[in-house]
Amino acid sequence: MDWTVAPEPYDSPVAAALWRAYYTEVSDRWYQLHEGRDTEPGELEREIAAQSGAELVPPRGVLLVARYAGEAVGTAGVRVLDATTAELTRVFLHKRARGRGGAALLVRAAEDAARALGAARVVLDTRGDLVEARALYARLGYTETEAYKEDPYSEHWFTKGLTTPSTGGVNQGNSDRI
């Protein structure tokens, strides 16, 4: 089955459902690790609403949605930070879609989107407990760097120079496995 990755309005029903799934997973993971519980419903609703994704619109950003066999299963956002730098954010794949090469394809598509927005490099941040994400970024050529922003949940910061377009194409299958 082929993967596709395409831009999606940040406020579409598809994007909203993926944002909810993403935020629920990373929030529950954090609360389980630090407080031994899942995110409380009020906490979840407040935080989902506080981060609308409105910055992920052209000409300064984009939200990409990955589909596997036609089903929306993941996202990656790109937003321009300055004249040469874009930030990768909201990288997520549903558990049911993992291990099929979609994460690498999605990040590469986001890198291509960053290039199209004029970026020469990409930065991102993540948490220490998101070991799978850190391994993915390292495998894709990202290197750890100094903090580029303050965020209470950021523990690791990565950067990657964008020199040439990625290979493999956005709308093609991909044999990369994660």
From TrEMBL:
For this protein, the record's Pfam families field holds: Acetyltransf_1
Entry annotated with the keyword Cell cycle: no
The annotated region (Disordered) lies at 159-178
- Biased composition annotated in UniProt, kind: Polar residues: 161-178
InterPro entries per UniProt: Acyl_CoA_acyltransferase, Bact_Acetyltransf, GNAT_dom
Write out the entry's keywords from A to Z.
Answer: Acyltransferase, Transferase
Q: Where is the N-acetyltransferase domain?
A: 17-165
- Determine if DNA repair is one of this entry's keywords: no
Q: What is this protein called?
A: GNAT family N-acetyltransferase
